[in-house]
Amino acid sequence: MKKSAVYFTTFRTTYTENRTQKLQRLLKRAGIESIDFRHKLVAIKMHFGERGNLAFIRPNYARAVVELVKSLGGKPFLTDCNTLYVGGRGNTVDHLETADLNGFTPLTVGCHVIIADGLKGMDEVLVPVPNGKYVKEAKIGRTIMEADVLLTLTHFKGHEAMGIGGAVKNIGMGCGSRGGKLEMHSDGKPYVDPETCIGCGMCLKVCAHGALAMASRKMTINRGVCAGCGRCVGVCPKGALMPQWGEQGFSVLDYKTAEYALAVVTGRPHFHISLISDVSPNCDCHAENDAAVVPDIGMLASFDPVALDLACADLCQRAPRLHGTVLDEVEEDGDLFDSIHPTTHWRDAMEHAVEIGLGSDRYDLITI
Ligand code: SF4
Ligand code: SF4
Question: Which of 56, 306, 315, 339 could link 332 by a cystine bridge, Cβ 3.0 to 4.6 Å?
Answer without folding.
Answer: 339
